[in-house]
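Human: For the file, kindly provide a plain-text protein record giving the amino acid sequence and the backbone structure tokens, at your earliest convenience.
Assistant:
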Amino acid sequence: METSHIDRLLELGLRSAAAGSEVLLDRLSDENESLVIRAKRDGSLVSSVDLESHRVIQKILSASNIPIISEEGDLPPYAERSQWPWYWLVDPLDGTESYLNHREGFAVNIALCDHTGPVLGIIADPLANAIYAGSAKTRPFVAQLNQLDQRKFIQSRSAQPPYRLVMSWNEPLEPEQLIPQSLDPKLFTSEAVSGALKFCQVVTGEADLHARSASYMEWDCAAGDGILRSIGLPLRHRETNELLSYNTMSLRTGNLYASRI
């Protein structure tokens, strides 16, 4: 795909992420009981605001005529979607539980993928009025949700000890178990960070390593992977060191890491 076309799709993705964020912020002041909340088969929560954000994002992205895989959308059969050369991968509300408890850490995740994985990624942090993005053709930047055209490009930096590991709140392994064996755990501090914002911290250099032993859904990490790939630090499998696979039959991935070290 030509650079100009990817740039146009990036702009479309930014507008859709900003629109989804606006929905989340508008409803954030509502009392939780005014939202329809239910548990999915896997035990995770979904609310009516997840669905509202999904509908707004889908309406904008549909202008691209590229199919969409969304956590809250209808999923076409694998035999059909496995033939798609391009597709959007969307989580309209990453961190529903944080959102429902009015905690920071929820986000909007949007990635554009081809057969190799994400070629662009967008993560919106509504509470911080911030949106992070990067692509195979554009180095990563951060902007305000209400000023998408005013962008600050993220400057790369070399990792220096003490290194900072960011991990999930529900990570079952101890921090020293997540750190690669080639590195000294004594050189690390560790902190739990919610949702996709972990990836943003690795991109900006606020964190040096993110690792996770448990499973993810692809829409949980594709946007972060897309931004990380724009600086040459893609997500990899912790055991095989291979790039992650996307648009799989189960849409599950996991046991991954990204490192600046």
Q: What stands out?
A: The helical segments are 3-28, 48-61, 78-81, 96-100, 175-178, 197-204, 218-229. The first helix runs from residue 3 to 28.
